[in-house]
Automatic annotation (TrEMBL):
Pfam families: WxLIP_HBD, WxLIP_PGBD
InterPro entries in the cross-refs: WxLIP_HBD, WxLIP_PGBD
Identification of the protein by name: Cell surface protein
UniProt organism field: Lactococcus fujiensis JCM 16395
Record carries keyword Transmembrane: yes
Keywords for this protein: Coiled coil, Membrane, Transmembrane, Transmembrane helix
Limits of the WxL Interacting Protein peptidoglycan binding domain: 3-123
Residues forming coiled coils: 337-364
Record's keyword annotation contains Transmembrane: yes
Residue ranges annotated for the WxL Interacting Protein host binding domain, each copy included: 134-299
Ranges that cross the membrane: 311-333
């Protein structure tokens, strides 16, 4: 990349060893400036674009700090985008270093929780290279991201995990059962260990399973946990997924959170090690996949073998052509028969007239 950034950690940092902003701002409505040093390490002038987004949870159970397409969780009370003022573009001359201020504001009311988000910086139309610095992440899109956490008090609350919905969906063009989980608490949810099973009620031979012990959730966020139905990842030669079937299903899930050596709940992680947790939740929900849903998802699932229906189209066209030919010949035959019958009728009428004329002469 053609530029570097260096966050200037303020004195009210909750943890001075962190390379991102973790601000302890105890007074409601308080404001302060954050400073980041930008340095252009190229020999040309560049423009750096800046943006901010609230922390959300990805479909794989990872906290992300960049803008997403989905809507934010309804439990999110304070969007960090409304609390940080910053320039959308930073212009840097060749070799120039510049300190840029970002203004942050705490909500005007008492707030027991975390407000989390991330500042993202990328160069306009640049040629990129790779780089990394402690506390600053460089993504494969060649952009820097710095996390911002804001809090009035330094404490924790119990995570609030709830099950919102279960339905058939797709993830990366593969069929999945999407289980929407919500963390409505204003705190990070770490060490989320989930075991989920889906069983068929209509077709009792169907079952799908999921296990992951290293997920996390952002404060006041939700995500669709994907239970695989189709084969995930690359397919072997002549390997295909089975189509999703319509019918009634049941999803059961057990989730553990917050690893603690003295935790009262225990569960195996994905490596087979026994871990202890402070919290446990159990969920169960019945749901239905309609035939229309199954057909639509199966058509767009790239791992399902598609039936070649060209021969059906050809057969249909052939049958239609045959029917048209038969109707054509029947029409011609009927027309010819009608013409022949008309000629016979005319000849018979002529003969009858001649006979009448002959009889009339004989009588005279």
């Amino acid at each position: 990349m053609d530029f570097t950034i260096s966050p200037q950690i303020p004195s009210n940092q909750a943890n001075p060893d962190e390379g991102f902003f973790d601000l302890l701002m105890p007074n409601p409505g308080s404001e302060q400036n954050l400073q980041i040093v930008f340095k252009n390490i190229s020999k040309k002038a560049i423009t750096v674009e800046a943006s901010i987004a609230p922390a959300t949870t990805s479909s794989t159970g990872i906290v992300q700090y960049t803008e997403t397409q989905g809507s934010l969780d309804p439990s999110l009370k304070y969007n960090i985008k409304d609390l940080v003022q910053f320039p959308s573009e930073i212009n840097l001359l060749a070799g120039e270093s510049k300190t840029i201020s970002f203004r942050v504001k705490m909500p005007d009311v008492n707030f027991n929780g975390l407000i989390a988000g991330g500042l993202t910086f990328k160069e306009k139309a640049s040629h990129q290279s790779t780089n990394s610095t402690k506390g600053i992440m460089l993504t494969n899109l060649y952009q820097y991201m710095i996390s911002i956490l804001m809090r009035q008090v330094h404490n924790k609350q119990m995570p609030q995990l709830t099950l919102s919905n279960v339905d058939a969906s797709q993830n990366n063009t593969r069929n999945v059962i999407a289980v929407n989980l919500e963390n409505s608490a204003p705190y990070f949810f770490c060490n989320l260990n989930v075991k989920a099973d889906v069983t068929g009620l209509t077709n009792k031979t169907l079952s799908y399973h999921f296990k992951n012990s290293s997920m996390q959730m952002a404060p006041n966020s939700n995500f669709n946990l994907a239970i695989p139905v189709s084969i995930q990842g690359p397919l072997a030669s002549n390997q295909y997924s089975k189509p999703l079937q319509a019918g009634n299903y049941k999803m059961t899930m057990t989730a553990y959170g917050q690893e603690d050596s003295s935790g009262v709940y225990s569960a195996l992680d994905t490596s087979g090690q026994l871990q202890h947790y402070d919290y446990r939740w159990s969920f169960s929900k019945n749901f239905t996949i309609t035939q229309a849903q199954a057909n639509k998802l199966n058509r767009t699932d790239m791992s399902i073998q598609k039936v070649n229906d060209n021969w059906l189209i050809g057969l249909g066209a052939g049958v239609l052509l045959f029917i048209l030919v038969v109707f054509f010949f029947l029409f011609i035959l009927r027309k010819r028969r009608k013409k022949s019958n008309d000629e016979k009728r005319a000849l018979q009428n002529k003969i009858n007239d001649m006979q009448k004329e002959l009889e009339k002469k004989n009588n005279n």
